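seq as requested:
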Amino acid sequence: MRKYSHLLFDHDGVLVNTEHLYYESTRRQLASLNIDLDLPHYMQVMVNGSDVWEMARDQGITEEAISRGRLQRNELYRQLLSGEDLSIAGVEGVLVELKQRFSMAIVTTCKDADFAYIHDRPESTLNILPHMDLVLTRSSYTKSKPHPEPYLTALERFSIAPEQALVIEDSERGLRSAVAAGIDCAVVEYAFTATQDFSKATYRIKSLNELTTLLGVE
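struct tokens:
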């Protein structure tokens, strides 16, 4: 195994349990426009980094209505976020252990406002951000995953080479981004993305708890 010095974490599905809520809020909003977004199609859109709202355009929905639908989806998403425990068991403990040996970052295409809502609202019990040396959200780059720009941006900000970093992802979209950036990637098992193709992953782990063993942190 390479001697990594930096760990680059995806956010949704790796550090917080939110992926299913974003899908559900999008599905409901499209349904209000009489458009059926089933999970297999959503997964394909997600993998390719495409725009799910193209379905609305294909049905002749105006850009004004699509813009309004996005805003309503965002509001619904935050309502769903506020109603659930977003934590993933063991995450904070793992971060505490890893912080002793590694510099760490979150590299996500989560929108800035959603990211802030997840972590900064008064009722949030998450304690993830204090362990991070760097946080990159959607506004940090022009192109989102699966384009390599998010992870290349992290390398640039840390002034490190690709071989010094390990990406931790839960989706094929994120894996593609890491591979395109030339960075090793450990894919953590996550039920929502279990059907995706992770054949190009450097490592496969069942939970974030296995990362400490993988990296020799006991």
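The radius of gyration is 17 Å.
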